[in-house]
Amino acid sequence: MDQLWSENLDASTDLNLVAGYQKILLFPQHKLIRRGMRGRDEQQLDVFSYISPEQRVPHDHPLRPLRTMTDEALKELQPRFNKLYAKTGRPSVAPEKLLRALLLQALYSVRSERMLMEQLSYNLLFRWFVGLNMDDSVWDVTVFTKNRERLLDGNIAEAFFQAVLQQARERSLLSDEHFTVDGTLLEAWASVKSYQRKDAKNDVPPDDPGNATVDFHGEKRSNQTHASKTDPDAKMARKGKGKEAKLSYNGNLLVENRHGLIVNSEVFEANGTAERDAALVMLEQIPGTKQVTVGGDKGYDTADFVAECRNLKVTPHVAQNLERPGGSAIDARTTHHAGYAISQRKRKRVEECFGWLKTIALLRKVRHRGVFKVGWVFTFAAAAYNLVRMRNLAIQST
Question: Are residues 254 and 360 in the same domain?
């Protein structure tokens, strides 16, 4: 081709034309090249789309059974939703959509609601789960803030949790006789700098008013004399001897021993006895009057807790703390039964629940302040865990 081109040149040929043709040969345009079977790397903006999000999501996607169970639970909450909203006024975002979006935040470890709305704007899977069409606009992130108080006052998290639990009960997935209880520390959304004396004046050092230098070394601090200025409900606590103390809440779970599903949850202030206090509250809420068993670690092996359990017709299968002054609160009358060994083996399942809540649902450090808001999020995340667990159990049974 170069030879043919050179033979057709004459002295009057424009040099710019020659340079332009050489440029085309060196840097050819994709429209001048025949690619054969190779597809073109082009994107044409379509005016219309004839494929819905429902068609985009595979039929065997793991979210499909979760969406079915979630819609069934939300259907039970319709009367409660109707009481939370006025009959007149501008329509707001449906509470069902808000709760489905918060479920996605827990299931996919989305660290903030602002990032959740960003994902919801372009993620087709998220839009399908929430119930948005391709052209529907997403709401502003502040909608969560404005509706959180409404959902908190309506106790929606507990109602949703109970609706999910009822589905597990109808599928015979729950044990009504054998349980496990345990607690863990949830780090609060507050820094150690905010932990100041309750009677101290709010003096800000002049070096940096925005992030003042605080020297608390050598100062004796306790929850009786100090409190967090950021989150007064958070208490300074530590997991054990030799561990650092952090501003925390105490999250507690009651798990049934058949399939490891969460049947109750409580969030208390980390005051030192919160685990045993929360355990008694959850055990008292077990329906029925027949004798049940509860497993636990050595922290529950106290005379007061064991006595209260027996008053509630609960047999305490707690681990023996033989190093405690006075010895263990339970004796061979309890430990010689085969059921005691089974309870001690099954009680490890509660750690799987805490592991999921802290790593997947991102509750290792909570993003809300106040014991009621933290309790709401903790209960809602427990419902999300039950949904995932029920889906996995259904897959195992097929």
Answer: yes
